[in-house]
Amino acid sequence: MSGVLGLLKGLGVTLGQLPKKKVTLMYPDVQPEWPDRYRGVHKLMPDLCIVCNQCARICPTSCISLSGTRGEDRKLHLETFDINFEICILCDLCTEVCPTEAIQMTDTFELAEYNRDAIYKDMNWLTENGKQHALRKGLSLESTEEAVEQNNQLEGNA
Asked: What is the pLDDT of the chain when averaged over all its residues?
C-alpha cells in the first residue's frame, strides 16, 4: 500500500509541473538573458585607457598584462593589452579600479577553445567583444565615442 501511495505522490508532483512555464532554452539558437551586473568576459575601450596599470596590479591571478608609450602629446597611449582567460576568475576587480572605465564586463560567456593558446585574448579581440556586446544589447556604438570625448574633455580641464 505504501508503494502505491509513493507512486501516486510522485505522479502528483510530475503532473503539477505540466502547466508551469518551461524554462529550457533552445541554446544556441536562443541566448539566455543575463542580469545587468552579470560578470562575463571583458570588453576594452582602448581610447579610454590611460595605461595606469591599476587593473594589472589589483588582479589576484596576474592574468592582465598591458604596455603603452608616451606620445607627442606627453600622454601614455595603450599599445598592448592582454588577458589570459585560462587563469582569469572574472572577479570584476579590474573593472572596479579602472578610473576611466576603459575595461568593463559583458554578458559574453562562451570561451570554449580547442587549444589553450586561443584563450589568451589581446586588445583587438577585447575591443571586438565590446562591439559585439553592444550589438546584442541594442546599444549604440556612439555611447562609446561619447565616453571617449568626455574623457578627453576632462583631461583638457585638468
From this structure: 87
